[in-house]
Amino acid sequence: MSDSIVIIPTYNEKENIEKIIRKVFSLSFPYHILIIDDGSPDDTGAIVKSLQSEFDGQLYLEERTGKLGLGTAYIHGFKWCLEKNYAYIFEMDADFSHNPKDLIKLRQACVDGADLAIGSRYIKGVNVVNWPMKRVLISYFASGYVRLITGTEIRDATAGFICYKREVLKTIPLNKIKFVGYAFQIEMKFTAVKYGFKVVEVPIIFTDRTEGTSKMSTKIFREAFFGVIQMKISSWFRQYNK
C-alpha cells in the first residue's frame, strides 16, 4: 500500500494515457494513480480499464458522464483519496507537460515540512518549453495579477502540478470551492494560504503537450480573470479556522 496517489483528470487523452501511467509506475517510489475520466469519446477510459489487471491495487478509474470540468474532477478525486486514507495527494496532467519524475521532488517537499508543494514554472525565471510567446506572457502575468489582487506571494498561481498533504484537503471545505476551470487552481491555493498552511514552490520545467489537444479556452481564461476578484471579495466575509 502506498501513502501517495496521483490524480490525473482526462478527456480525450488516448495518445498519452498509457504512456503516462507506465511512466509513473516506473518511478523509484511506488505511487498509486487515480484517473478521473469525463466520458472521453476516444475511449481513454477503456485503455485505463485494460491496464488495471496489470496494475492491480495501484491503478484506479472513476468514470463520469460528460465533460464536467477540471475543478469538479479534482474535487471528486480528493474526496475519493481522503476516504482511502492517502497521506499525499497529487494533481498532474496526462499530457507530459508535467514531468512524472518531479513527483519525487514534490513529495519530498511535503515530507520536509510543506503542507502544499507546487511544481512552479516561474519560481526561477520562466521555465516553459514549446509554448508560443503569447501564451507564456498571459500565464506569467496572470500569476502577477493574482498576487496583486489576493496579496499572496505564490509565483505560479495557475499551476496544476501539486502535492497536498491530506490535512489540507480535510480542512478546506471542498463543497464550497466555486470554480471549475483554471480559476479552480487559484482558488485552492488561495484558500490553503488563508487557512495558514505552508506553501512551497518547487522549480520544474513545463513542456507543452506534443500529442492530443489543449483544453484551454477563452471561457476558462475569463473565469480565472474575474474569478480572482470575486474570490478576494468573498474572503472578506469568511472565517478560516482549522
From TrEMBL:
One of its GO terms (cellular component) is membrane. Residues 6-171 form the Glycosyltransferase 2-like domain. The keyword Transferase applies. Gene3D superfamilies: Spore Coat Polysaccharide Biosynthesis Protein SpsA, Chain A (3.90.550.10). One of its GO terms (biological process) is glycolipid biosynthetic process. Pfam families: Glycos_transf_2. Keywords: Glycosyltransferase, Transferase. GO terms for molecular function: dolichyl-phosphate beta-D-mannosyltransferase activity. Belongs to the glycosyltransferase 2 family. PANTHER family: DOLICHOL-PHOSPHATE MANNOSYLTRANSFERASE SUBUNIT 1 (PTHR43398:SF1). This is Dolichol-phosphate mannosyltransferase.
